[in-house]
Amino acid sequence: MTAHLHHAMVLAAGLGLRMRPITDHTPKPLVEVAGRTMLDRALDHLAVAGTSHLVVNTHWLADKVASHLSGRPGITLSHESELLETGGGVAKALPHLGTDPFYVVNSDIIWTDGAVPALKRLALAWDDDRMDVLLLLTPTATAMGYDGPGDFFLDGHGLPRRRRDREVAPLLFAGVQILSPRLFQDAPSGKFSLNVLYDRALEAGRLSAIVHDGRWYHVGTPDALPQVEAAIEAETP
């Protein structure tokens, strides 16, 4: 069952503390990597996917994000005077995200597509009868800028299992996903992480995942910036 997604949200409200001093004056989503901001790269992917209603949340240096986006049509800003974390941020923006499933994309990661764009692959894999969450995972072995223990294992049916303590998992969450508004029924109020809702969906058997088949980059620190730029430029034909 292919989902036709017209709404999307880009998470752009974070403080970018690990990217200081760059983020003292530039919000992390507006940091340029190989000549293009991370926020614009996310929006470019969503434009190719055919989304027409976009929400971008803001907090740190929100005026700069608003100014940067002023020339792009179809974008609603959801300002957070207090950071609401990932779950609270999406919950606050729900009135602008329609009644159907929607994309949510982190603005602090960069990805390039395989033969089929990752967002299209997610839409093709979506099954509204059995899913409330569909995550894009990426292999830890090929994730540039990541050195953690991973997040998930994945079985042959696309059902993930979280890494337990002292385990090392082969896949990490790539910061790209489809969510159903159903996920937010009885959600906490105020500030909370999407992980709270992921765990509920996992327990109910309504969280699925696919594995990214392109490249994936995390720009976490100023030192990582030139390394990621060199890799992207080498990949660009």
UniProtKB/TrEMBL annotation:
Domain named MobA-like NTP transferase: residues: 8-133
Keyword ATP-binding recorded: no
GO molecular-function terms, A-Z: nucleotidyltransferase activity
Keywords: Magnesium, Nucleotidyltransferase, Transferase
Alphabetized SUPFAM superfamilies for the sequence: Nucleotide-diphospho-sugar transferases (SSF53448)
UniProt key word Transferase: yes
Annotated InterPro entries: GlmU-like (IPR050065), MobA-like_NTP_Trfase (IPR025877), Nucleotide-diphossugar_trans (IPR029044)
Domain of life: Bacteria
Name recorded for this polypeptide: Nucleotidyltransferase family protein
Name of one Pfam family that matches: NTP_transf_3
Organism: Magnetospirillum aberrantis SpK
